[in-house]
Design brief:
single chain; alpha/beta; FAD/NAD(P)-binding domain; 4 domains; five-stranded parallel β-sheet; three-stranded antiparallel β-sheet; 23 strands; globular
Length: 465
């Protein structure tokens, strides 16, 4: 991150979002809204004094996964680049109640600016790589697992933060009371994945990160750890070996679908504990297990705004919301919009090595276009006959690639050939037949059909003779 932040050819625009994209490969215009931090980036030295003195504490639902707190003026995490904090206006006392301003008083460089406004930037770029990532599945959507109802039901991300030495518990694995160390832990795989009620696809990373968490929990607490799985999927390099190593360490694996997590006890041995009800498919029986802690291995799902982002950049998504590639095997990093590439989990669930490999491939594709200098476009593109065009504009909203624009001075439509893919939708929509597809005009199609008919007749006559 430091290398990227200091590189002379890299401009980092954090706390920003893309609002609009126009143009085509080699000539994109991107409008970016740089949101107001209420902190002057030029004056701020990143000393952290404003964060230290801020009196307002807020639950950090992002970096600390809801287990820790942050201030109303904060940096997302200690090593964030650039090291400039942002004021959370929804929780800052000055913006909500009109009092405090303590951060302004203690700032040694006068970097606090409560009147700062959003900035609109327009940049010219030749290519775009989308790497927007994923959202973790919200475990509250499956109420039978008890997340949000029972205090000692955690998500995998919460345990990940708990295991970190810089986390809210200093690396200690404890229950919600902050003191009790669990003696028996259940990890439920495939929460939100491989489920027809939520997502049918496999999230690919859940098995391995569940096994990793089981190893770390067992190592730190000595607890009995049980993994409830449907199938163990460990296709990466050395992943299967790691799985067998965990078996040798004593990590328990139970093949079965968990029905529910409940606090309804049936005997004194279950008193004060959570009960996991599950089906053990290897022996064909329904069973119960009392545990101190339940960890939900939630799956991966597309970002909540993935379809809106796809619309802005002129690409498409699949039924689940992942960005659609040009071809899953022959061109997995490109999209149907030339010059727009994808990398990482925005295309589908994948782990870190796969994401890095795909990012390198996308960067290589961009470098090849830069070195090439010129781009060949499809020969079969739509063409507008300006003498026949009435300027009705019906072709513009029907184009799936936003390749048609309206020329107000001529009052006619115009096709941007660099964006057109020759799908023919506009030719079928135009009521005046002013739009034709180059090399696929009506006369050419009729001639092809007539040629095929004459060839069939000639073949039939030869067969008859």
């Amino acid at each position: 991150m430091m290398d990227a932040g200091r590189h002379p050819n890299i401009t980092l625009l954090t706390y920003s979002e893309v609002e609009a994209v126009s143009g085509y490969v080699g000539n994109f215009t991107v409008r970016i809204r740089k949101r107001a931090r209420s902190v002057d980036e030029e004056k701020c030295t990143g000393c952290g004094l404003c964060q230290e003195k801020c009196p307002t504490k807020v639950v950090d639902t992002v970096y600390e996964a809801g287990l820790g707190y942050r201030k109303a003026v904060y940096r997302p995490f200690a090593q964030a680049v650039p090291p400039v904090p942002v004021i959370d206006r929804a929780n800052c006392l000055w913006f909500t109640k009109g009092r405090c301003r303590l951060c302004e008083k203690v700032c040694p460089t006068g970097a606090i600016d409560y009147n700062q406004q959003d900035t609109i930037l327009e940049v010219q770029v030749g290519n775009i790589i989308l790497a927007t990532g994923y959202d973790p599945f919200d475990a509250r959507r499956i109420p039978q697992f008890g997340y949000g109802r029972f205090p000692n039901v955690f998500t995998a991300m919460e345990i990940e933060r708990m295991l970190s030495g810089a986390g809210p518990t200093g690396g200690r694995v404890v229950l919600r009371d902050g003191e009790t160390v669990p003696r028996r832990v259940a990890i439920i795989h495939c929460v939100g994945s491989r489920d027809r009620n939520y997502h049918e696809y496999c999230s690919r990373v859940c098995c391995m990160y569940s096994i990793k968490l089981a190893h770390l929990i067992h190592h730190k607490t000595g607890a009995e750890v049980y993994n409830f799985y449907i199938d163990i999927r460990a296709p990466g390099k050395m992943y299967e070996e790691f799985y067998h190593r965990m078996l040798d360490e004593g990590i328990r694996f139970i093949r079965g679908k968990v029905a529910q997590v409940t606090d309804a006890v049936r005997g004194p041995e279950e008193e004060g504990q959570l009960v996991v009800q599950y089906e053990d498919t290897l022996i064909g029986k329904q069973r119960r297990m009392a545990v101190d802690m339940v960890v939900l291995a939630v799956g991966l799902e597309p970002r909540r705004d993935s379809r809106e982002v796809a619309r802005i950049f002129g690409i498409s998504t699949d039924a689940d919301g992942w960005f659609r590639e040009k071809h899953p095997k022959l061109d997995p990093v490109a999209t149907m919009t030339d010059g727009v590439f994808i990398a990482g989990c925005c295309q589908g669930p994948r782990d870190i090595p796969d994401s890095v490999a795909q990012a390198s491939a996308a960067a290589a594709r961009v470098m090849s276009l830069i070195g090439q200098g010129e781009v060949e476009i499809q020969p079969s593109v739509a063409v507008v006959d300006e003498l026949m065009c009435t300027g009705c504009g019906q072709c513009i909203p029907t184009c799936p690639y936003a390749a048609i624009e309206y020329l107000p001075d001529k009052r006619v439509a115009h096709v941007i050939e660099a964006l057109c893919k020759g799908c023919g939708t506009c030719t079928g929509t135009c009521p005046s037949k002013a739009v034709t597809l180059r090399h696929f005009t009506d006369q050419q199609l009729v001639s092809e059909m007539m040629g095929a008919i004459f060839a069939m007749r000639a073949a039939e006559s030869v067969a008859t003779e």
